[in-house]
Amino acid sequence: MNIRWDAEKYTSNFSFVHRYGSGVLDLLDAGAGGAVLDLGCGNGALTKALQDRGFAAVGLDASEELLRVARASYPGMEFVRGDATDFALPAPVDAVFSNAVFHWIDAERQRDMLRCVHRALKPGGQFVFEFGGSGNNRRIHAALAAAFERRGRCYRMPFYFPTVGEYAALLEEAGFEVRFAVLFDRPTELTGPDGLKDWIDMFVKAPFAGIGAEERAEIVDEAVEALRSELRVDGKWYADYVRLRMKAARPKEASSPCE
Length: 259
Ligand code: BEZ
Description:
The protein is an alpha/beta fold and 259 residues long. It is built from ten helices and eight strands. The longest helix is centred in the last third of the chain and has 19 residues, at 213-231. The protein binds benzoic acid (BEZ).
């Protein structure tokens, strides 16, 4: 999926994306100084956090806008442009880390991405990540779908939110050993009085292709109002996030006892 990012707004209003990523960092037990790729590094905040933990971190992202912010924020660090489903590194790394990225990749391209990650890792290397899992933003997408349907339109949920079982199977098929997996609810506070509207405007673009600005605004307002009683609590908006957090390893090459 291709998306043009408003990099400044993303960084100012949606900083929880990288704040929450630090829980994923705790899964990494690669040796200090090890080389780590931050896959889909966005504005580079977590690439910097990896460096602060002693790793030699490199960020890779497809968005030139976000890379510009990353390079300006963290001069001296390495950020490269690349497609998560079609990249190759000059040298293999000890770990690949990723936060809040894989739900943007279509189901059909996940195998390509996992093949690239497997190839990028040294034997024994770690792969730790978190992204939207099964049921993520279920209420938000249901409210949008209802507003589309009232207009005789079909809402196509544009993200990939797999179950633990589905993703573990893909990892194993790609040659990984699954070491840890958890799917958990994480209601996430959004910024400001229009937090939910801003979230939809920022992240839900593809379903509105071909719909005029006026109708789009009506649909979003209608969905926001429908969600007020569920997702607005004590004067704050919350998004109904569900996270899939996993750790996998590229197995060390086995030495055969028969040789
Ligand atoms: C997420 O982090 O779960 C997410 C963010 C934006 C759109 C879809 C999912």
